[in-house]
Amino acid sequence: MTQQEKTIPVVIVGAGQAGLSMSWYLCREKVEHIIFEAKTACHSWDDERWDNFCLVTPNWQCALPGHPYQGNDPHGFMVKNEIIDYVRGFVASFNPPLREHSAVTSITRHEAGGYRVVVGDEVWHAGHVVIASGAYQDAVIPGYASAIDPSIFQIHSQDYRNASQLPQGAVLVVGSGQSGAQIAEDLFLENRKVHLCVGSAPRVSRFYRGRDVVDWLADMHFYDLTVDNHPLRDGARDKTNHYVTGRNGGHDLDLRRFAREGVGLHGTLATIRDEVAHFAPDLKENLDDADRTNADIKKSIDAYIAREGISAPTETDYVPVWEPDGGNMPLALKAAGITAIIWCIGFRPNYRWIDVPVFNGANKPVWRRGVTDMPGFYFLGLPWLHTWGSGRFSGVSRDAAWLASQITGKDVPIA
Fold first, then answer.
1. How far is CA 321 from CA 131, 270, 286, 290, in A?
2. 375 contact partners, CB below 8 Å, separation of at least 6
3. DSSP state of 69
4. Residue 280 dihedral angles phi and psi, to the nearest 5°
5. Is the keyword Oxidoreductase in the record (predicted)?
């Protein structure tokens, strides 16, 4: 039997902060639309974060449209439950046309123009489609993981909650980006022996010369820098985020200090074979590069302070508190007492359900400020879609307003 087709001007796929922000502007502009969400609104904050998760950016950067942070700690860092409450408050503030537990399984071009969107046993015809499902669908776990002895517990960072979830014993954390570095600290604070595979992620200080580094960078208009003006241009989208934490008021994550206090640091994990982990000989290089990035950020702040004639306390240069002696020697997992591995090596986007020519040869979507070459087809909420904040609470409102202007054909002011 032919499915009955429903028609609507705009379909939004995904009800994270990006899709909800898009909906907020369309509601304000009185544009009929619907949001389809495979799970529940902003479920990832609840379902894919560990118990002690907190923001790494200060609360004042939480600026969803019409819903700025209103708490009494703008320079603090919301913990998991506070983040969930903030997002739920945003949803309640405007009651979006949301369909939860409604996964979009197919999007194709419609013979009458626009797009054909399949959701369960429903077919929708939309003139505009906004893909706001994010870039973190498929957890990355290497193929050789399946050959590791099943007595060693394995989990991806999105499924880690706390130390008690793991068997007793040492833990191998693979990856030193934001999740890996913070999870390593979380385990260490629970008195677990931790081994950390250090990759090429850069680091940044939490505070410098009397202020949060984010405050300095905001004053320097770093967060207004567009990807077109970034020195790396599109390459900025492939860069790993700097590791730092907002835990307990915020502090640096200095992996050298971790090592001095008992965390085992290793180079990039090359493979695990016969329960022996093999590492690249890049531990010192990766630590030095991370420190160099941090030093460069501080130098840019120093230059800004000098240029603007700002009175600010001075700080001495960072001196490494620990130096590696090798870091690439193989590690026999069971001999080291390792009973668990946490994979913190990221995600891949999953766009297999989109059959619209908006992807390049590497199956990556191609857009300019979220607008693709296919009329009425957009992406929102991806890292560096337009600026650093495009995938975050701080910049998604600006991007959503821009796409709303493309849909309505008129200027849509940012809330």
1. 46, 26, 15, 14
2. none
3. -
4. -75, 155
5. yes
Structure confidence by residue, pLDDT tens digits, 52-87: 999 999 999 999 999 999 999 999 999 999 999 999
Q: Per the structure block, which two tokens stand in for 384?
A: 């560096």
| CA separation for the pair 182, 346 (Å, rounded) | 14
Query: Is residue 388 pLDDT above 50, yes or no?
Result: yes
Q: What is the mean pLDDT of the chain?
A: 95
Q: CA angle, corner 337, sides to 334 and 338, nearest 5?
A: 75
Q: Is the dihedral of CA 207, 256, 319, 285 positive or negative?
A: negative
**194 backbone dihedrals φ, ψ, rounded to 5°:** -120, 135
Instruction: Go through the domains of the chain in sequence order and give each one's CATH number.
Output: 5-137+349-408 (3.50.50.60), 140-343 (3.50.50.60)
Residue 314, CA distances (Å) to 210, 249, 302, 309 in order: 8, 21, 9, 13
pLDDT tens-digit map of 315-358 = 999 999 999 987 789 999 999 999 999 999 999 889 999 999 99
Q: Quote the strand ranges of 295-384, DSSP E.
A: 331-332, 338-343, 347-348, 354-355, 377-379
Residue 20: which H helix or E strand, with range? helix 17-28
Dihedral sign for Cα 325, 328, 334, 335, please. negative
Provide the CB-side half-sphere exposure for 37 (13 A, CA): 20
Tell which residue, 256, 262, 259, 265, has the closest CA to residue 318.
256
| pLDDT of amino acid 362 | 86
**Pairing, β 207-208 against β 211-212:** antiparallel
CA proximity to 206, closest of 316, 333, 80, 55: 55
Distance, in Å, from the CA atom of 310 to the CA atom of 50, rounded to the nearest integer, reads 39
Region label for 351, one of left (φ > 0), alpha (ψ between -120 and 50) or beta (otherwise) = alpha
Residue 105 CB neighbours (<10 A): 10
| Per-residue pLDDT, 42 | 85
Quote the percentage of the chain above a pLDDT of 70: 97
pLDDT tens, residue by residue, 302-317: 999 999 999 999 999 9
Cα 53 to Cα 186: distance, rounded to the nearest angstrom = 9
Neighbours of 337 (CB within 10 A): 12
